[in-house]
Amino acid sequence: MAATVTLFGCQLSKPNYESVMDYPVKSGSVQEVTYSPASTQFSLWSPNADSVQLSIYESAESTAPICRQWLKRQKDGSWQALVKGDLLGQFYAFRVWDPLLQYEQEETPGIFATAVGVNGRRGAIIDMRSTDPEGWSSDCRPAMSRVANAVIYELHHRDYSIDPSSGVEHRGKFLALTEHGTLSPQGLATGIDHLKQMGVTHVQILPSYDYGSIDETRLADNRYNWGYDPINYNVPEGSYSTDPYDPASRIREFKQMVQSLHKAGIRVILDVVYNHTYDVAHSNFTQTAPGYFYRTREDGSLGNASGCGNETASERPMVRKFMLESVRWWVEEYHIDGFRFDLMAIHDIPTMNAIRQMLDEIDPTILLYGEGWAAETPLIEESLRPIKANIAAMPGIGAFSDELRDALRGPFYDDHQGAFLAGLPGNEQSIRFGIVGAIEHPQVDMTKVNYSQQPWALQPTQMISYVSCHDDMMLTDRLRASVKPEGSRKSKVESQKTICDDELMRLDMLAQTVVLTSQGLPFLWNGEELMRDKKGVHNSYCSPDSINAIDWNLKARNLRLCDYYAGLIALRKAHPAFRLVDAELVRRHLEFIDTPECTVAFRLKDNAGGDAWKDIVVIANAKREAVKVELPDDEPYTAVVANGVVNAEGLFRCEKTAVVAPQSAMILHK
Ligand code: CA
Q1: How far is the CA of 210 from the centre of ligand 1 (A)?
Q2: Are 380 and 319 in contact (CB under 8 A)?
Q3: How much is the mean pLDDT over the chain?
Q4: Cα-to-centroid distance, 254 and ligand 1 (Å)
Q5: pLDDT in tens, 477-511
Q6: 332 CA to middle of ligand 1, Å?
Q7: Which residues are catalytic?
């Protein structure tokens, strides 16, 4: 039986839903506001509401509205109102009366606000075209024939430029990446020029949508957060703008950043966190359709696969529709070139595949990858989870390889436990697994691979190859914590001594040589190339700048390391053998060479991928002594990487054997 609601002149009756699963899907766009100078149309999805009210305000913080208006129920579960007159520059919020709401009822800008006031509490009515920087209509993503060419650099706005040594004017802001000619105190390039120098093809920016943990009205407090606490998914974060009170400022400055990176030949990947919200009681999801957007257990308690108190339900049609439209919004309005899905395993495979399909229709080179794990077990059956083991059911979608990461540096759960880089045997097969890009390969013994019993990637480009990211320690800290100084019989914890900077640098170079010669997509965390540390802090998500900020003085001190990274990236870009795209080609051309424990060596043979070099040999030696490796066949090889130096023109010649210096990598070709 349906109760007829006649209040406020609305004649459409409220349907009786047995559960939130019966809610209809909103027709047309999920967006709530359509502005024109003559009138503004509002449309909020809230199927179970008894009534919905709209308030228009002069500012984001004013207490009394200019006007209030009741919305009318529609058949698709949405509520609509047309407000005549020009609302440009004004703010709005909805208030929903829903009997399922177990929390205090609050104002909400809706779930798909595209412009907001300070702290994102009210929506803003703006003309999106007025936020376009000059030349925006001709902005386009830098050319890239195939995703295998990607070299990804993860960056936090505040880490990257907040320290005065960055020489940047707009420190910690989106605009920092629009400034050219910025220099460290020693006169070395910082900011966007440094990214160009490094040669990376993509930057992956940590959450840059509007998040909740930084109070935008108190920016002088200089608080820091990674931003994994979404409030408004479709608006840039205010604390990274020069004026969070002006709704257009964050939007325009974000676009200026994208435009500037694009002009520098660098694509932009957004870190998206659809898997959970900042909290549940105050979230826009709860305040519009309580109970719908989150998974719950049978007893009604919230799922917590995110480890943050809630998990969203991507398998429900309106959540899926929301995610699809949100991704499309960032691509079309902000020209974003790729997406990194936080805790992707919380979502569901059909949703991820639908996103891939939508992106393919726009541009197949838009990257899509994520974390193939969750913090706790998601409340969705395992066969539907986008976990690493199910990646084969998601062509064109990638996942991070913890196999390679932990085989190099040691396990996630113990910062003091080392692995290959610490000179410990037993990690060789896991490193092989990472080098081939997590695909099936006859010379990878899966019984000896650390976490996976089966290869999980269909194609090597589905594996993200890395040794560190924003999570956990910097590589430098990790090596200090896990590698015993030479001659020390005590464990690291007991001795309190750490390895010297020279050894640190050697191991850093060795680690990234494996990453940058892997057939997966290589991924670097900002500041590793400068040998930055985080003073040993593991989870620095809200640590102060003194822990997280990059000190650009390090660049002069560790220029050799920086040059090494740049040299390897250039080598990778110049040689298709390192990015073969197709699993079959990897199996045909990549051949491992048997070498002693604590070393891994392979050959890319027969002009792999059309490479100008006939054969390339890569040797990684984690021992504290030199190793001698027999080279395949008798012709002489030319070394292009040895002992921490990259020179594509050639360093020296090797016949029959190569002697690889302690804790270093060698790359040779003929
Ligand atoms: Ca915010």
Answers
A1: 4
A2: no
A3: 96
A4: 14
A5: 999 999 999 877 655 555 667 889 999 999 999 99
A6: 22
A7: 342, 371
